[in-house]
Design a protein that fits this description.
The structure holds two protein chains of two kinds. Chain A contains 16 helices and 16 strands. By secondary structure, chain A is an alpha+beta fold. Chain A folds into three domains: 285 residues, no CATH class; 113 residues, no CATH class; 58 residues, Arc Repressor Mutant, subunit A, CATH 1.10.10. In chain A, a hairpin with a 2-residue loop joins strand 8 and strand 9. Chain A is elongated, with a radius of gyration of 30 Å. Chain B has a domain of 249 residues: Amidase signature (AS) enzymes (Alpha-Beta Complex). Chain B is α/β, with parallel strands linked by helices. The chains are: A alpha+beta, B alpha/beta. The interface between A and B is large, with 28 and 44 residues.
């Protein structure tokens, strides 16, 4: 139980910027190139090698800063963070310290039917380290990742619940993906999330001692790790113990955090401005230029979907989870002139199929245009909604227009009243018992007759005409 | 045939072009000279075994009428701080005893593009940390004027190579005087360009905000030629300058009438050897004859130059030298008999064995001055004073075109004399470090022989990117002084 305790949570999100070359060299950032393929004297930290800033990485960082409502510093400084580790080739990481590129921003998201705003302290650029793997009595180092550009986004300690933390992280990821600056893949490590957690009494004025949790590779685990950590800290304090400032790791199989490094073992990183790099100068013109290229951001887009297409808030927020999904929806909505139908088809039928088959929306076997055509076939009463689902299933298999499928498979809706009347007559004739019951007042049986008629028409009968015929015949 | 080793780089290049002699003849003369002298002088750590092949290739070009470049066929000795692809590069340290770089420094590439041939890699103080060449893991390099004396440092080997005619030109690096001081001790020309003039890419870093490579030569003209080859913006060095004023050679003979020479008041304070002061007077008289005017200037912050230099340089060095951990390259301790207890033990043994005393001293100093709790009092304060010092120079160069001063307070000192006393050793840099802190171009020009038989020179310092001015003045001064740096042993 939380009782009169209040959790204080802050997140540090490391986003790998998807530039073609590394932060400070021409080395490729391409994934899956074989061990130590993407290296040069710079990535290796050879004697005499020097860093040169990748302008694209700065541009993407400014873009992100603007989307996170940050101030962009006119002059920001790269600093060296000094520590020894085998996969850190230079013995220091080039990062930003007291003069980060982006500061004082915020993000907003919906949670429990309320808008939550979380402040962004800073977003600064830095380079990634390499990767060590341990094999019994020896270790191997792969430096492909060494020097890959990262943007570290640091939130204010304004997050109050584990669910908020996860939602905050999802929102940041969503923004990064909308900007197309980071693929946001937690499993591959292109997005990493460290959580700072402490607890304090609700009426206290000073924060409790914070603990950093690392190694969390899903948003679900963000929630679980923080949840565990809050409970652990309260338990420690309530049983008379003290919280140690430390770094803990999350074990997702046990749903627990465990200590990795105590504060006494913490480093003095001896930050100082990197003399190999000039301060990064960002002119107001450059910032406005980048600002003018910013895409519509998820929250704005969701609002617009509500206004322009009359979507419920829920639909708008689901459809804007991913930019590609939103774009798909919007195209289908525009081309079909039926936004609500487009939203339903995308959110229900299409999403289910794509999720089952683990296909991205970008690779959807049904294009937005064809989905729009399908919706139009329904709206023009060429097919019924039920038949549309059949057509949809065919479309998943065959790369064909819905119209062609309808023709080929002879699925056109039967609107010929005389043909339908014949079917209705036959049904009434062959079900005298039900007719009698219906006439005696068991009107629920109307559905039975509709079902029979639809079945007789192989689902192709126009339901409105069938309804009308049945009503007049059954009296 | 004339002794080819006594020729300047310019004479060698034109002699080869005019077919007076061959590049291969030049190369073998210098290699013979090295063979004869270097056992005693120890100016080279490694010789380039491809040097003769490269000289032959120049001869083939001449035979087929191809252009060989402004330094075509000229042997050049390179300080062992500069990476040379396929040729061992040690930085004077045990740490890099077996390090063969897979790439060359931009400076080396540029020199090779101009046709110069790397003859060998020069001895130096370990990681350029020293003023006497005594911190080299590869033994003392000796002053060719008197082998009981140090050649200066850290680029001692590069200075000795030229002074003893084992190479007509060489490259050194200067972080706090490491070109100008050994040039002064060895009686040759040594130039440190403006910070940013010469790419630092591929040059082993000592103190990144101060390091700058430059030439040694027998004449100012040769240095001007080398500088034209090695200066210029480099996409691999973010601190390299886009300044394109590289007309060094063509400006050498400009008239000096009306140029103002500044005489820093502070540089005549303290204990300066009488004959060193006399050398400055000689230069002053010659410059006056050439039409220069004199103005006394004041650089009050230079009195802090040595302490702030040793804070900034060691701070940067403590970080720059972190990469020598024995993981990817460099010295690795023998862990076969005694496996590493943990990662710290692994690092400690690699670095403990690989680095020498002076390097360890400076890493320790720099680690301290960057430490939390001391950063503001030391590193940050030093950076603040550095900015004031820079402003001092900026203001001063509004009053004059060039500064004239001693290079060091005394000529070369004896081997072993100061090595146990780091403070006295550091004070040796009193006139040279300000130039690096302010990022300015400076040079050392030999003027006379001291009564003790060792050469004595003067230092000229100019405003940022004023190399053409600096070299012009030095060239005219050199001609009117007529000092011949020939060693009679």
């Amino acid at each position: 139980m939380i009782g009169d305790w209040k959790p204080v949570i802050g997140l540090e999100i490391h986003a790998q910027l998807n530039t073609e070359s590394k932060m400070f060299s021409n080395d490729s950032t391409a994934f899956g190139q074989g061990d130590n393929a993407n290296i040069s004297p710079v990535s290796l930290g050879l004697p005499g090698a020097l860093p040169v800033v990748n302008k694209k990485a700065i541009e993407n960082s400014i873009k992100t800063g603007l989307a996170l409502n940050c101030k962009i510093r006119g002059t920001s400084v790269f600093a060296r963070k000094n520590y020894f580790y085998p996969d850190l080739p230079k013995g220091y990481q080039i990062s930003q310290f007291d003069k980060p590129l982006c500061e004082e921003g915020y993000v907003e998201f919906h949670i429990n039917d309320q808008v939550k705003r979380v402040g962004i302290t800073r977003a600064h650029m830095e380079e990634d380290a390499g990767k060590s793997t341990h094999h019994g009595d020896y270790s191997l180092i792969n430096l492909n990742r060494a020097g890959v550009p990262l943007l570290e986004i640091v939130s204010e300690p304004e997050i109050e619940t584990p669910a908020e933390a996860a939602e905050y992280a999802r929102t940041v990821r969503q923004i990064l993906r909308f900007l197309d600056v980071c693929d946001g893949n937690l499993e591959e490590g292109s997005l990493r999330c460290d959580c700072n957690v402490s607890v304090m009494k609700k009426d206290a004025t000073e924060f409790g001692t914070k603990v950093e949790i690392k190694n969390i590779n899903s948003f679900r685990f963000v929630e679980k790790a923080i949840d565990y950590e809050i409970k652990r800290q309260i338990e420690v304090i309530e049983s008379g113990g003290e919280i140690m400032q430390e770094t803990r790791l999350f074990d997702s199989t046990k749903n627990k955090t465990y200590s990795m490094r105590k504060k006494e073992q913490a480093h003095d990183y001896r930050y100082f401005p990197d003399p190999d790099l000039l301060p990064v100068q960002v002119s107001d013109e450059w910032v406005s230029e980048i600002k003018s290229t910013l895409p519509e951001l998820p929250r704005d887009m969701a609002k617009r979907f509500q206004q322009d297409y009359g979507l419920p808030e829920y639909d708008a927020s689901v459809l804007t989870q991913e930019k590609s999904l939103a774009q798909y929806f919007e195209q289908a909505a525009k081309e079909s002139s039926n936004a609500k139908a487009a939203s339903n088809w995308v959110m229900v039928e299409l999403q289910r199929e794509l999720n089952d088959k683990k296909i991205d929306i970008e690779n959807s076997p049904i294009s937005a245009s064809r989905l729009a055509q399908l919706i139009q076939l329904i709206d023009k009463k060429v097919i019924s909604g039920k038949i549309a689902k059949k057509v949809f299933a065919f479309m998943l298999e065959d790369d064909k227009n819905p119209e062609d499928i309808v023709k080929e498979k002879n699925l056109v809706q039967i609107t010929d009243e005389s043909a339908l009347e014949k079917m209705v007559d036959e049904i009434i004739a062959s079900n005298p018992g039900q007719v009698e019951q219906y006439k005696a007042g068991k009107t629920k049986l109307f559905g039975f007759f509709v079902g029979q008629a639809m079945k007789a028409s192989k689902g192709q009968g126009n339901p409105e005409i069938i309804n009308k015929l049945l009503k007049s015949k059954l009296g | 045939m004339k002794d080819l080793t006594q020729l300047t780089a310019k004479e060698i290049n034109s002699g080869i072009k005019n077919k007076q002699f061959k590049a291969s003849e030049v190369m073998s003369s210098f290699l013979e000279q090295i063979d004869a002298k270097d056992k005693e002088l120890n100016a080279f750590i490694t010789l380039n075994d491809k040097a003769m092949d490269l000289a032959n290739a120049v001869d083939n070009k001449i035979a087929s009428g191809e252009d060989i470049g402004a330094l075509g066929g000229v042997p050049i000795a390179i300080k062992d701080m500069l990476c040379t692809e396929g040729l061992k590069t040690t930085a004077g340290s045990k740490m890099l005893e077996n390090f063969i770089p897979p790439y060359s420094a931009t400076v080396v590439n540029k020199l090779e593009q101009s046709g110069a041939i790397v003859i060998g890699k020069c001895n130096q103080d370990e990681f350029a940390m020293g003023s006497s060449n005594e911190t080299s893991y590869y033994g003392n390099c000796k002053n060719p004027w008197n082998t009981d004396y140090v050649p200066g440092g850290s680029s001692g080997g590069s200075a000795v190579a030229v002074a003893a005619s084992m190479a007509p030109i060489s490259i050194g690096t200067d972080t706090g005087g490491s070109i100008r001081q050994p040039a002064n001790f060895c009686g040759v020309v040594g130039v440190k360009p403006t910070y940013g003039r010469v790419s630092r890419y591929g040059i082993i870093a000592f103190a990144s905000s101060l390091d700058q490579a430059g030439p040694f030569s027998k004449t100012i003209e040769d240095s001007a030629m080398v500088l034209e080859s090695i200066c210029g913006e480099d996409p691999f060095d973010a601190t390299s300058s886009a300044n394109t004023d590289l007309s060094f050679v063509s400006s050498l003979n400009n008239d000096l009438k009306g140029l103002k020479v500044g005489l820093p008041k502070e540089y005549s304070d303290g204990e300066i050897d009488g004959e060193v002061a006399a050398a400055v007077e000689t230069a002053k008289k010659q410059l006056a004859d050439l039409g220069c005017e004199f103005v006394e200037v004041s650089l009050p912050y230079t009195k802090y130059a040595v302490p702030i230099y040793y804070i900034i340089a060691t701070s940067e060095a403590s970080s720059n030298l972190a990469r020598y951990d024995g993981v990817r390259f460099g010295h690795r301790a023998d862990f076969k008999d005694k496996p590493a207890a943990d990662l710290l033990d692994f690092y400690s043994r690699n670095r403990g064995e690989g680095f020498g005393t002076e390097v360890k001293r400076r890493i320790t100093l720099g680690t301290f001055t960057l430490s939390s709790g001391y950063y503001d009092a030391y590193y940050n304060k030093a950076c603040q004073v550095r900015r004031l010092l820079q402003q001092n120079f900026t203001d001063t160069f509004k009053q004059c075109d060039v500064l004239l001063s001693p290079v060091t307070a005394t000529p070369a000192f004896k081997i072993g004399e100061r090595i146990a006393d780091p403070i006295t050793m550091y004070k040796n840099d009193i006139f040279t470090t300000s130039t690096n802190l302010a990022g300015l171009p400076g040079l050392s020009l030999p003027v006379a022989l001291h009564s003790n038989g060792l050469p004595v020179g003067v230092q000229l310092t100019a405003g940022a990117f004023q190399e053409s001015h600096l070299l012009n003045i030095a060239h005219k001064l050199e001609q009117s002084i007529g000092f011949k740096g020939e060693i009679h042993s």
